[in-house]
Request: fold
Amino acid sequence: MSTDDEFAYYVINLDRSKERWQRINEHLQSMGIGAQRISAVYGADLPDEEIARYYTPHLNQKQFFMSLKPAEIGCFMSHLKVLKSFVEQSDKAYAVILEDDVEFIGDVLAYHAQWLQAVQGEEPVMLKLFSRRQVYGTVVHTNHSTIKPHLVPLGTQAAVLNRSAAYQLLKAWSQFGMPVDVAYQHFWQHGVRVLVTVGNHVNEISAQLGGSNIANKQVLPLTYKIKREFKRSWFRLKLKLISMFYYLTS
Reply:
């Protein structure tokens, strides 16, 4: 029988978003969960030399179809910060990483058996707990709704991972050139097995909280938007084809 002693809970939260931290902390405490708050990196405030340590235009041109916004850089660095905190400061076997605009559906304890079945062992594994769209793939644990997806869904709302996965991701992402959720999709590059729950374990409630608090509001020319969407469609098509190839051969 699993207990919370096996899981270290982390919540990524901007310093200016005190109400969001208070809300999710009270939500978790109501289920007997103590979470560590990780101060999110606000990309717009980062000095150029700090950005250059992690994000490089050279990698960006190779890995993605457009330059990353400061918010995307900050988001990636926030997730690296969580992983580093877990491997350096926690003695728990597994990390549960949450963004501050989610809430669990039902009792967390009811999910522990599924989480453990997915991520226990020496293999680096991550289990994503949320997807906005239906995910297709192969059922890997018949007793629970856990699948190996054809294409890892976007989003970084909630996930569970083991210590091997945390080390592997930190090693693979010493520098980056694409958004963190897109980087998770490239499992053949970072070497972590990414699984997904069929039914969501959390609800995303960003809209109820006033929407994203890291997005940069910017008016862009129509020609730029058209060009960007064409590049996005081509990138997604290539990603689907490559992902399916590795899915079938791994």
